[in-house]
Structure formats: structure tokens, C-alpha cells
Amino acid sequence: MPTIAEKLAAYAIFNKALREQRLLRQPCEVCGMANANGHHDDYSKPLDVKWLCTTHHGQLHARTRAPRVKHPTPTDNLNTIWIPEREMRKRFRQRVQRLGGCVAAARAWNISPCTISDILNGRREPGPTLLHALGWAKDIRYKVVNRR
User: Fold this and answer.
1) pLDDT tens-digit map of 40-99
2) For residue range 3-40, what is the model confidence (pLDDT) as tens digits?
3) 8 A C-beta contact, residue 87 and residue 81
4) Measured between alpha carbons, how far is 86 from 66 in angstroms, rounded to an integer?
């Protein structure tokens, strides 16, 4: 699986070629819709792309993406430990530090270092895939405060 750095490098070369008109957008290879997006099968070849419209690009990724795993829910395990959000961020910070920092953690979890920074600083919540990788699940509860 390519690293985020490899993907970003390929995107940069690809976009520069488009800007400089060394590469011209083509219609979708499936339906012929104009101004399709480039899809990389191999990030080591940044100018070798399949031209796909948004619909067919999404369908391709849906077929090639790993099947979604069932994320654990609080009722899956009677030994569930509930922690407040502040504690979750503290534990997340410890996991990131154990892996060697944001960049190393991003590589390990295949997400952007910016995403990790945003989670650590409270600008974003971890998504289900990252929570699953950490062995965590998010649960939202509502409490009846005043019965009438």
C-alpha cells in the first residue's frame, strides 16, 4: 500500500502537468463524460492514470477498498471501559508518542499527519477506521434529566 507521501508526490506531479498543459483531461473511460478525474493505479507512475468521472471513480474505489469491518459496539463486551473525551485525547496522544510522533503514527495508521494533529488539538474527532485500529469505539448517550 502506498504511503501518504508517495500519493502526495504523485498528485503534485500530476497536477503540475495539468496546469502546464503537458497532460490534458480526457473523458471518462467508462461513460464518456467530459472532464474526468485521473485515477492512479500505480503512484510510482504519476502521469499514467485512468480517466474516470466522479461516479465511476467512486465505484472503482468501492470495489477495490477493503471491506468494512464491523466496529465494536459498547454492547459487544461487558468489560467495556467508558472514558470521557479528554481522557480519549490523552490516551491518543500517548499512543502517538509511543509510535514516534505524528508522522510515524500517520504512516502506521495510513492517515494524514494533519488529521492526527487535528485530533490531538480537538479540531476533529477520530473516525471509525482509526478508532477501530486503536481498538476503540465511540458511543453517544442521552440521559433523561427531567421527566414530565
Assistant:
1) 999 999 999 999 998 888 888 777 665 555 555 545 455 566 777 888 888 889 999 999
2) 888 988 999 999 999 999 999 999 999 999 998 999 99
3) no
4) 31
Cell reading at 94: 500517548
Query: What distance in Å separates the CA atoms of residue 139 and residue 137, rounded to the nearest whole number?
Result: 7
> What's the whole-model pTM score?
0.45
C-alpha Rg value of the chain to the nearest Å: 21
Q: Which helix (H) or strand (E) holds 10?
A: helix 4-19
In eight-state DSSP terms, residue 81 is -
CB 129 within 8 A of CB 65: no
With contact defined as beta carbons under 8 Å apart, do 130 and 109 qualify?
Answer: yes
Is residue 43 within 8 Å of 7, Cβ to Cβ? Answer: yes
Quick one: angle between helices 102-109 and 85-99, nearest 10?
90
Tell me the residue ranges of DSSP E strands in 74-113.
none
> Do the bridges between strand 49-52 and strand 37-40 make them parallel or antiparallel, or are there none, so unpaired?
antiparallel
